[in-house]
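Recall the central idea of this unit: under ordinary conditions, the amino acid sequence of a chain determines the structure it adopts. In this exercise we apply that idea directly, starting from the sequence alone.
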Amino acid sequence: MSDQDKVSIRKLPTGVLGLDEIMGGGLPEFSFNIIAGGPGCGKTTLAHQIVFANATPERPALYFTVLGEPAIKMLRYQQQYEFFDEAKLLNSIRFVNLSQVVLEKDLNAVLDEIVKEVEAANPAIVVVDSFRTVIRKTLASTGEWELQSFIQRLALHLASWQATTFLIGEYVPGEVANNPVFTVADGLFWLYQTVERNSVVRKLEVIKLRGQGSVPGLHTFRISGAGLQAFSRTLGLGGRIKVPTERRLCTGIPELDKMLSGGIPEGDSTLVAGPSGTGKSILATQFMAEGIRRGERGIIAGFEERSQKYLARAGNFGVDFGAAQKEGRLSMLSLRPLDLSVEETMQELVDAVKKIGAKRLVIDSLSGFEMALSPGFRQDFRESLYRLISALTGIGVTILSTVEVEDSFTAMPFSAYAVSFLSDDLIRLRYVSIKGELRKVLVIIKMRGGAHSREIREYEITSAGLEIGRRLGEYQGLTTGVPVPYSCSPEIREVPQEQANKKQE
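Accordingly, the structure predicted from this sequence is:
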């Protein structure tokens, strides 16, 4: 059969951000679907979003309730969501209560009532909530054969009406096998709500969807004031491949730019690793402040500090982050809940990047990022971080991330999370003990975009930010944190910077 001979199936929008992509483009029109899951997982809210997204005066929606919540009670809560449109209740959406028919009569009477209402309204969308109630009553009074016959007749009627139908029910995953409802359905959408320690995680799965390629597996979703929003588990894997460029982004620290052979290559992911107090956030703020000065829009995703600290710190560098925010040149995201998924964090970052056309992104810090995730997502932190970085660098964003590393005075670990391989560039900050003082040193471990300095440089944190000083060339073992002079003779002492400069001259 040629493509011209194939029947074209129109796809309806679900009204749920991210869900159309997971389904392979939307809902197949005139399909017969099941929305299943336990209590409180969002089944009714999902159905309402679909109804409000598609109902029109010419092709309205019929919403049948069966021993569930009365329509007036249901709408009292659903009107709190942004997708709720009161005007549609007047001419596009109609609620029909079937509870009395289900309680007093048999399945034939229930079907007759549904048929009568559908033929009178010519709806585009039909919802029966909760269909599980009908099934329980049928199995108790008649049997499975009568139920299967009822399902078949209902499906035939719905196909002839050219309506897209949803049956909602409270099911558990083990009920999929040998269930006549699931056998007849064109689409089967399962919603889950699980508790992971103190966090609640919501996931959905497209178990079955005839005629189109949906994304398999479990996808996280969140219910907020806007309703449901879904996040595909493959988010970030289909991004553009990073295009090499010769352009460098200045960090705002002149000596560091020299060590980086001109700055951070555009589109790179740079990791700044070091223990607490070494100035990772200050370096990140200088990097963003320099971008704002140069007219490059940016985003700061803070998982530890509040936005006010960044605003105050940037002021010390002569940059007004507050004004940049108001002008749309900077977006500051404070992401600190303890039940995030990487997918929703990634979606928020990608949306923010596209909204303002950001070229720079600061993630401060990966340690805080991991703590903000639900416990179950922390197990896949490295894989998720790979997708996040690939998605953002693929659209041309230069990323600077910070990560806290506990210093050892016998070695210099690069990253506590073993994520340094995900970065193009790695800058390591650490403490060293010299003459009874803790001093700070900086070294560039790697830079995939070209040559870089191999010097270990001392630096200080001043009111102006990080100021990189001289190379500590007279010491060995700096990477252990306890260096010793190359000559242990008592006459050997540290040469002050001024004398060292004169000696070089």
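The two ends are 84 Å apart (CA to CA).
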